[in-house]
């Protein structure tokens, strides 16, 4: 059974710093991995989608990487801003049952 | 707006009430999903509809009853809920389920309905 873990559960960093959020999954039989952002009490906004054949995707200050063999994905945020404060979730799409499994998220706080 | 609209945004209901949540998408997607998000838990998939047919029910209690009249609309009918059902209910859509569309383009989520059962 696929399990997706995000560590740490919460992170605070000063504005302007570059940071990395981690996502690990136990079953490498995935077809994609998606990163989402969730603001308090709101829905999920898709940030980046990486297909299993890809190693990374970039959008603006965000870069997501995928290493299936080690069961890991990272979300890199460059030059962080207070507006980046939110919860970031990753979700892995399973080849075995076509389900996407979510991690519990990392709550990010950028200090002004 | 993401293209997936959920109403109402907030709902407070008593345990004996009957209410419905609505989800609407105009993205041309054929698969729609209901998720439940409780505090400190990962998102839980509740129901999946693919081309209007229910393809998945993840052991959801019968007090939750989904309805999908067409590929653009999804409802979740609620009756005799319990306080532990209080959560954020999220609707999502994808191009299709099990086909290359859903795999290639990912999921789009609505803003959710915050449900409180009193």
SSE diagram, text form:
The complex is a heterodimer of chains A (112) and B (118).
Chain A: E1 4-5, E2 10-14, E3 19-25, E4 30-38, E5 44-51, E6 56-59, E7 62-67, E8 72-77, E9 86-94, E10 100-102, E11 106-111
Parallel strand pairs in A: 2-11
Antiparallel strand pairs in A: 1-3, 3-8, 4-5, 4-9, 6-7, 7-8, 9-10, 9-11
Chain B: E1 4-7, E2 10-13, E3 18-25, E4 31-37, E5 44-50, E6 53-57, E7 64-70, E8 73-79, E9 87-94, H1 100-105, E10 108-109, E11 113-117
Parallel strand pairs in B: 2-11
Antiparallel strand pairs in B: 1-3, 3-8, 4-5, 4-9, 5-6, 7-8, 9-10, 9-11
| Number of helices, where a helix is a run of at least 4 consecutive DSSP H or I residues of chain B | 1
Largest sheet of chain A: 6 strands, mixed
> How many strand segments of chain B?
11
Oligomer: heterodimer
Radius of gyration from the alpha-carbon trace of chain A, in angstroms: 13 Å
Q: What is the average per-residue confidence, as pLDDT of chain B, rounded to a whole number? A: 90
| Secondary-structure element pattern of chain B, one letter each | EEEEEEEEEHEE
Roughly what fraction of the amino acids of chain A lie in strands? over 45%
Percentage beta strand of chain B: over 45%
List the chains of the largest interface with their residue counts. A-B, 23 and 25 residues
What is the structural class of chain A? mainly beta
N- to C-terminal separation of chain A? 41 Å
**Helix/strand order of chain A, N-terminal first:** EEEEEEEEEEE
Q: Compute the CA-based radius of gyration of chain B.
A: 14 Å
Q: Could you estimate the helical fraction of the residues of chain A in percent? A: under 10%
- Kindly report the average pLDDT value of chain A: 94
| Structure annotation, total helices of chain A | 0
- Helical amount among residues of chain B, as a percent range? under 10%
